[in-house]
Design brief:
Chain lengths: ~325, ~500
């Protein structure tokens, strides 16, 4: 009996395959040039544009590992963007304050989700659906139903600027990954999350503070989503309550699942989530650079995720392999 | 079954085992944990394909490819943990997957009638439309058996069916088994209770470490012979009636006075000092587990007093209990004990880590040290500490949970049925371990359905009946007869 490969390995292979396709058919996909002390190229674009999804997906990984799910990610993105845009257009608050308030709002919303799930015992899907639906409404109330545009160079530099030659979002996402990874592996939080997701009753009886653990996971997800919201709003120099971060929760869930963390909770992999997010964005970028009509993006994305998930499925591999050996 | 061999990564689970089950006999499969009993059953019932060897049914070679396949062939199994859906009704469970239909719809009246009739044959009278989860495990098991019989079983495999039944329920199960034997069914029976095995079996097959070590008729075989074969060493029967060493004089550590909770259990009254063991005896459902949960804060007491070192306390939660240095090995290790997909190491350090809090993480090196220490000390059979606990055998899972609590350095340890569903050898090891812990000054609360075990290990025994304490036996008055009389209600109430 051969040992099954870890799902993340399959995801990584799928990503390499995708890169290989580009190497063969997309001239210049791997070329990176330096202009004004800053890197440019398709690969940099992939990293840059995958950062909002990744930031949301990191927290989502923890939430899913507790056997939960957070559907409110997109709404939190919209709210945090609206808060930032409002503050920058209406007031004189300095940039750090604006960023802190937006992230704080994200934290509060994450805690709210966590409260509903862990203390009141509401099903995660239902509990976060509340904020998913009402969150867009809150964002619309904040923006008065208008798209708020701004020209503030400070807020625009959040996504537009660069550090050490890398676009700011990439740096922010990398820091986010570092923080969550440290939280997961340098503290006992990761083990506790996995124990809660795998057998909550046993974890509770072993003295694991199961409520706090879940609350923490949703809080991290809220904060990550809020930061993603700031980046999205800064890219577009606008806060669009209706469309900012639309379906981002689904992309985040896809990234987590494609990366090899199971929806059934328990074991999680942050590296897998990074690979998952990269697969999604590499696909999108590939489609754009190949000039495929944009309408196809979603279909292609869905097919790619399906393929990754099928590769990870033991029964699927067994059936396919046994067919092949029988033939 | 001839020359069955089955290999898993790292272990040969079955090595050329022969097994013959005749129609109209009750055949007990005996062996320690890891002897290969479960694997043999799983090969027979189509869960695992054998690597080599043949299976014949009525002289015809068969090769069950799945559990479903085996059922079609007439081999039905009732597992240790009842594999039914507690939220569905008795009748729904009974017909699950083969519902009677009428005009394309499920005919519930017919389903209810058939379920009631089949259960009636086993002399179980319950409302088929009531939900399965509302009945005792014994009734659930009968439903599982009735379901198996209804599928035209020729062979019935009963894997540890008695581990959650009380004496009366066991007797009823045996009556059913004898009746089925008379109808010509071949019954493969697995139980860790020697008494039961001797009471009901016609023949034994003994496995050890994946090999066949003997097949013999039950008549003419002594307990000693059987246990010696299973363990591969001689056990003197005198150890069976021993009492624990008396504990030295010490002030009580934990004292319960009229402790209880409405609707759960009432009137808990006992004290336990360092180095002492107090037992909880009573039938299934008498409130033993509830008492343990109450003491550990899994449920909060709403009456009576609990004192720790002479000071009144209220245990608010398992986490609080952990900080008070209490430990609790729950009865139901699958649902409340192990975290199946985490490694042996992570399962062992879980309680200690929880006590330290999430910020003060134990380094990987410390974790490995602790895990390896307990794997060695308790003799946990695992290739390494990184193996997911869910893949270990029941007895080893139990030891991992014990290790979890010992690693948390408890002062007061609650053991709820730590020996349930595990083999004789592991039981002896766990009892030895309890004696060691007593010497180290732990106070232990020990819950067990086996009276001899309670007598052997406890200085003091609380007897529970109908969710309240009805007696407290101490010192020389602790013996199986006295406990039984108290449970039955005819004895002297202390």
């Amino acid at each position: 009996m051969r040992r099954a490969l870890h799902p993340t390995v399959w995801a990584f292979l799928a990503w390499l395959l995708l890169l290989g396709v580009n190497l063969a058919f997309t001239p210049g996909f791997f070329s990176i040039e330096v202009r004004d002390g800053r890197f440019y190229g398709s690969l940099i674009d992939v990293l840059n544009h995958s950062s909002p999804v990744l930031l949301a997906a990191l927290g989502m990984t923890l939430v899913i590992a507790t056997k939960g799910v957070d559907l409110s990610v997109g709404s939190v993105v919209a709210i945090s963007g609206a808060v930032a845009a409002l503050m920058v257009t209406k007031g004189q608050a300095p940039l750090p304050t604006i960023l802190a308030v937006s992230v704080g709002v994200g934290l509060a919303l994450g805690l709210w989700n966590g409260l509903l799930v862990s203390v009141f015992g509401i099903q995660p899907m239902v509990a976060t659906l509340v904020l998913m639906v009402s969150g867009r409404g809150i964002a619309q109330l904040l923006t008065d139903g208008q798209i708020i545009t701004f020209q503030d160079p400070g807020l625009a530099s959040v996504a537009g600027g660069s550090l050490l030659g890398l676009p700011n979002p990439v740096v922010v996402a990398a820091c986010g990954l570092g923080v969550v990874a440290a939280l997961a592996r340098w503290t006992a939080f990761g083990t506790m999350v996995e124990s809660v997701g795998d057998n909550e009753r046993a974890a509770h009886l072993a003295g694991v503070p199961t409520r706090w653990v879940k609350l923490g996971a949703y809080a991290v997800c809220g904060v990550g989503s809020a930061i993603a919201g700031l980046i999205v709003c800064s890219y577009t120099k606008a806060a669009d309550a209706n469309n900012a971060g639309l379906y981002l929760e689904l992309d985040a869930i896809l990234a987590v699942v494609a990366g090899g963390t199971a929806m059934t909770g328990g074991r999680f992999t942050l590296v897998g989530t990074v690979v998952g997010a990269l697969i999604l964005q590499t696909l999108t970028t590939t489609i754009l650079t190949k000039g495929v009509p944009v309408q196809w993006t979603l279909v292609v994305k869905a097919v790619a995720v399906l393929v990754v998930c099928l590769l990870q499925s033991d029964p699927f591999r067994r059936t396919v392999l046994s067919r092949r050996s029988a033939a | 079954m001839r020359g069955i061999r089955k290999q898993f990564p790292g272990v040969v689970a079955l090595d050329g085992v022969d097994f013959t089950l005749r129609g109209g006999e009750i055949h007990s499969l005996m062996g320690e944990n890891g002897a290969g009993k479960s694997t043999l059953i799983k090969v027979l019932t189509g869960v695992y394909p054998p690597d080599s060897g043949t299976i014949e049914l009525d002289g015809r070679p068969i090769r069950p490819r799945s559990a479903h396949d085996a059922v079609e062939l007439g081999i039905s199994t009732v597992y240790q943990e009842v594999n039914l859906v507690p939220y569905l009704s008795v009748a729904e469970n009974f017909v699950l997957g083969r519902e009677p239909r009428r005009f394309g719809r499920i005919d519930w009246r017919e389903a209810n009638r058939r379920a009631a009739e089949a259960l009636g044959r086993l002399e179980v009278r319950v409302d088929p439309s009531s939900s399965l989860g509302s009945h005792s495990l014994a009734v659930q098991q009968m439903v599982a058996i009735a379901r198996a019989l209804d599928q035209n079983a020729r062979i019935l495999v009963l894997d540890e069916p008695t581990s959650s039944l009380d004496a009366r329920e066991v007797e009823r199960l045996f009556e059913v088994m004898r009746r089925l034997r008379a109808e010509g069914l071949g019954i493969l029976f697995v139980s860790h209770f020697l008494d039961q095995v001797f009471a009901v079996s016609d023949r034994f097959t003994v496995l050890r470490n994946g090999r066949l070590v003997g097949e013999m008729p039950a008549r003419g075989t002594t307990r000693l012979q059987l246990v010696s074969l299973m363990l591969g060493r001689d056990v003197d029967e005198e150890t069976l009636a021993k009492r624990p060493d008396p504990a030295g004089p010490a002030a009580p550590m934990v004292e319960a006075r009229g402790l209880g909770r409405r609707g759960s259990v009432e009137g808990l009254d006992f004290s336990v000092a360092p180095g002492e063991t107090v037992g909880l005896a009573g039938l299934l459902g008498s409130g033993r587990t509830e008492s343990a949960r109450l003491l550990f804060g899994a449920e909060r007491a709403d009456r009576g007093d609990l004192k720790l070192d002479g000071r009144r306390i209220r245990v608010r939660s398992p986490r609080h209990a952990l900080r008070l240095r209490f430990g609790f090995c729950p009865e139901d290790r699958k649902t409340s004990g192990i975290v199946p997909n985490l490694s042996v190491r992570e399962n062992i350090i879980l309680a200690l880590q929880a006590r330290r809090g999430w910020l003060r993480r134990l380094s990987l090196r410390r974790q490995r040290e602790i895990a390896d220490r307990f794997i060695r000390a308790l003799g946990i059979a695992t290739p390494d500490a990184e193996k997911p606990v869910g893949t270990l055998s029941g007895g080893n899972q139990q030891k991992v949970i014990l290790a979890r609590w010992l690693a948390s350095e408890p002062r007061f340890l609650i053991l709820d049925e730590p020996t349930r569903g595990i083999d004789v050898g592991s039981k002896a090891e766990i009892e030895r371990l309890m004696a060691d812990l007593r010497r180290e000054g732990l106070a232990i609360l020990f819950i067990s359905s086996e009276l001899e075990e309670v007598v052997r290990n406890c200085h003091r025994v609380c007897v529970l009946r109908d969710r309240r304490q009805v007696g407290l036996l101490e010192g020389d008055r602790v013996d199986a007869g006295a406990i039984l009389r108290t449970i039955a209600g005819g004895g002297e109430d202390a």
